[in-house]
């Protein structure tokens, strides 16, 4: 996003808001991973503790979800940069 | 991706905070975040195998994610054009607020 | 909703809030359409660009979603009007 | 659909804003919007074919949507009565707040 | 949660916030039940009124959802108490 | 479940309200509520039969719910440890904000 027409006071205000939203965003990703990996990996309710199979699944699922999010973020960021460039050249 | 229209007006002259401008920026931020999160979820469903036998995205998954992001973005543009051509005002007819 | 026991200042305040919510509501419908039509129409990831088949599907899907929302809104609004009438006659 | 109870009190006498009353109205508005959005999503899943070969709702889809809205609304009433008969206070037991 | 390092003014403030959130939480549970029970129980759109079969299904579904939530809440609360105890003894 | 770190600082000395502390507590509350609601939904899908022929949880469902809560909680811990070992700062890379 382009904050070039924000004065210093407005930029400081936005920075504080963005920091708070980053925290909430992180917590939301956390819950999303828990929900998705639980739903995919846990299907055996004859035991109370996670089986070793379930545990391995959760570990891989979490790691893959993060790497997936990072990759989506990288592509998304490239796309936004292209749009910005195109706007600046016109 | 400034689909909320131009960010209204110049900076407040003497270093004050133009609350309306900040609020607009926050709405834009929330919209992009929501868009991003849905893209992550949709592309995860489309591309990531649920066997979870390894920690890394394999080659096929990686390529799929790249294309998925591009397509999701194209769909976002298509839908946006469609909504715009119908007129943002009109589209409000399908919301709860038209019905109260 | 019935704002008849709101004074002018309160009504002006509500009007501003409702306008903001209409904007958010519109943006939410926008995201819902993107998500639903993408999930339904895009299943081929051997290409990066939308195929013409996918594109046609997205167009129809969007148009139908809007018409569907409008129809639900119309029925919903009739129902609310009936409830209001019934209350006023009792 | 005023399930939040009577909107408290008379207008503030001298043209001031009774914030509690406004907040109550906003909660009611958010609830109706949420209800409406879920109705749209549910009836879309129940009634709209995903072949997407045309721009209009066909006859069958249109009739289905009308009935779906009526039924969704009936379910909303039924569930509301059930929750009320159990006592709103009691029902809090199944929330996160009863558990902290 | 542990509010022992909150002064009385802060506790009063939190109490008001929690009351408001309980209300919102109740309304959210209400919508969740409506959505889930409608989606599970209503599949016949040849009639406008709920059939007696659908009505019975919605009643059971609602009752079971509440009992389910209460059971999850009870277990969750026991778990949190254990964590608190463990922290206090260390 | 204080995964947001220690609640900052002592009470404000003279009975004032430390807004930052209150805001932190509200974020924690919202997180726990969200967590609880997802647990309710997930365990409902895993354990509750959709035949709906009776009002009570049967024996099998009740036992399933108890184990489901325990497992969901374990998954929450596992995921939390994983995220922490990667570094909270780093994990931000997969969010919309890293991309603006």
UniProtKB/TrEMBL annotation, chains A, C, E:
Lineage, please? Eukaryota, Fungi, Dikarya, Basidiomycota, Agaricomycotina
Q: What is this protein called?
A: Mitochondrial import inner membrane translocase subunit
Source organism per UniProt = Laccaria amethystina LaAM-08-1
How is the protein disposed in the membrane?
Peripheral membrane protein
Q: Which SUPFAM superfamilies match?
A: Tim10-like (SSF144122)
Task: List residues of the Tim10-like domain.
Answer: 17-78
Q: What is known of its domains?
A: The twin CX3C motif contains 4 conserved Cys residues that form 2 disulfide bonds in the mitochondrial intermembrane space.
What function is annotated for this protein?
Mitochondrial intermembrane chaperone that participates in the import and insertion of some multi-pass transmembrane proteins into the mitochondrial inner membrane. Also required for the transfer of beta-barrel precursors from the TOM complex to the sorting and assembly machinery (SAM complex) of the outer membrane. Acts as a chaperone-like protein that protects the hydrophobic precursors from aggregation and guide them through the mitochondrial intermembrane space.
Q: Which GO terms describe its cellular component?
A: mitochondrial inner membrane
Q: Where in the cell is it found?
A: Mitochondrion inner membrane
TrEMBL record, chains B, D, F:
Q: What is known of its domains?
A: The twin CX3C motif contains 4 conserved Cys residues that form 2 disulfide bonds in the mitochondrial intermembrane space.
Summarize the subunit comment: Heterohexamer.
InterPro entries per record: Tim10-like, Tim10-like_dom_sf
GO CC, sorted alphabetically, is:
mitochondrial inner membrane
Descriptive protein name = Mitochondrial import inner membrane translocase subunit
Pinpoint the Tim10-like domain residues.
23-85
Biological-process GO terms, alphabetical:
protein insertion into mitochondrial inner membrane; protein transport
Its function, per the record, reads:
Mitochondrial intermembrane chaperone that participates in the import and insertion of some multi-pass transmembrane proteins into the mitochondrial inner membrane. Also required for the transfer of beta-barrel precursors from the TOM complex to the sorting and assembly machinery (SAM complex) of the outer membrane. Acts as a chaperone-like protein that protects the hydrophobic precursors from aggregation and guide them through the mitochondrial intermembrane space.
């Amino acid at each position: 996003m382009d904050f070039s027409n924000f004065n210093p006071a407005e930029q400081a205000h936005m920075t504080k808001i963005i920091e708070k939203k980053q925290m909430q965003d992180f917590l939301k990703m956390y819950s999303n991973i828990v929900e998705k990996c639980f739903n995919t990996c846990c299907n055996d309710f004859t035991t109370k503790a996670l089986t070793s199979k379930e545990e391995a699944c959760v570990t891989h699922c979490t790691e893959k979800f993060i790497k997936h999010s990072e990759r989506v973020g990288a592509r998304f960021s490239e796309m936004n940069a292209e749009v910005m460039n195109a706007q600046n050249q016109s | 991706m400034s689909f909320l229209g131009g960010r209204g007006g110049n900076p407040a002259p003497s270093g004050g905070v133009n609350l309306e401008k900040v609020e607009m920026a926050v709405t834009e931020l929330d919209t992009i975040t929501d868009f991003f999160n849905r893209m992550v979820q949709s592309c995860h469903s489309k591309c990531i195998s649920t066997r979870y036998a390894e920690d890394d995205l394999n080659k096929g998954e990686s390529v799929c994610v790249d294309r998925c992001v591009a397509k999701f973005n194209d769909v976002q543009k298509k839908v946006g054009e469609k909504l715009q051509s119908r007129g943002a005002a009109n589209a409000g007819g399908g919301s709860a607020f038209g019905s109260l």
